[in-house]
Amino acid sequence: MAELTHRHGVKSTGLHRHPQFGHIRGAHPVTASPSGSHRIDVRRIEIPVLDLDRQRLLGEAFRRISAFQTALQQLSDLGADLAVTLAEALAGGGVEPAS
User: Fold this and answer.
1) pTM for the predicted model, two decimal places
2) Are the C-beta atoms of residues 74 and 66 closer than 8 Å to each other?
3) Integer Cα distance of 61 and 69 in angstroms
4) For residues 62 and 22, what is the distance between their CA atoms, to the nearest angstrom?
5) Quick count: other Cβ atoms within 10 Å of Cβ 5?
6) Are 18 and 58 in contact (CB under 8 A)?
7) How many CB atoms sit inside 10 A of residue 57's CB?
8) Residue pLDDT, tens place only, 37-83
9) More confident residue, 31 or 80
């Protein structure tokens, strides 16, 4: 399979990758019928065979990305909570706006 380099310098073998779960995804394994229902064509799913060291390397990278995504979500939640708390304190007279 030919390697492609994306605009961010990321190299790809041409397989479509799921953003969170990695490599098990075909080029277009899901088809839609005229009625709108979807069907997965398992014959078109590509599963690359990787050596164990590469699997471990990718597994660790996906774990780090998942942890980063979790930390970002927690930070976002904390920021939203802080904004609500500040707005409530301002509305209730507990704090004064900066001059």
Assistant:
1) 0.52
2) no
3) 12
4) 8
5) 9
6) no
7) 12
8) 777 777 887 777 889 999 999 999 999 999 999 999 999 999 999 99
9) 80
What's the rounded Cα separation, in Å, for the pair 24 and 49?
Answer: 11
Q: Which residues contact 73 (CB under 8 A, 6 or more apart)?
A: none
Q: Which helix (H) or strand (E) holds 54?
A: helix 52-91
Amino acid at 76: S
CA distances in angstroms from 21 to 52, 70, 77, listed in the order given: 17, 14, 23
Q: State how far the Cα of 25 lies from the Cα of 23, in Å rounded to an integer.
A: 6
Residues of the chain with pLDDT > 90, as a percent, come to: 47
Residues 50 and 13: beta-carbon distance below 8 Å:
no
CB atoms within 10 A of CB 61: 11
| Angular region, 84: left φ>0, alpha ψ -120 to 50, beta rest | alpha
> What is the rounded distance in angstroms from the CA atom of residue 78 to the CA atom of residue 32?
40
Would you say 10 and 17 are in contact if contact means Cβ atoms under 8 Å apart?
Answer: no
